[in-house]
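A quick word before the example. In earlier lectures we treated sequence and structure as two separate objects. From today on, think of them as two lines of the same record. Here is Phosphoribosyl-ATP pyrophosphatase written that way.
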Amino acid sequence: MAEAVDRLYAAILDARTRDPQTSKTAKLLREGMTKIAKKVVEEAVEVSLDAVQGDRQRVIEESADLVYNVAVLWAETGVTPTDVWNEIARRERTYGIAEKLPKDTSRKDDR
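And the structure line, produced from the sequence above:
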C-alpha cells in the first residue's frame, strides 16, 4: 500500500503544474488549505457514517477518497508519505503497531 500512496503523492505534486480547469487536483490545490481541510473532514465523516450503516463497499470507496484528500493535505503542508511512515514505525517500536500515542497534555492546543 505504501507504494500506491507514494505514487498518489507524486501525482498530486505533479498536479501543481497542471491547469485547474482540467485537473481536479490542481483546482483543489489552488483553492488552498481551508478547502483541502474541509474535504478531509467531509470524507472522514462520510466513511464513518458508511461504517455505522454497515455499507462495506461505501467504506472502501470513501476510504480511498479520504486517503486521496489526506495526501493532498500532506502535499500542501510539505509532509511526505515517508514522514508519516517513519512516525508509524516510531510508534510501532515504542507502543506496538496497533496503539496510538497518548495525548501530550503539556502541549498548548491552539485550535
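Notice the following. The mean pLDDT is 91. We will return to this example when we discuss secondary structure assignment.
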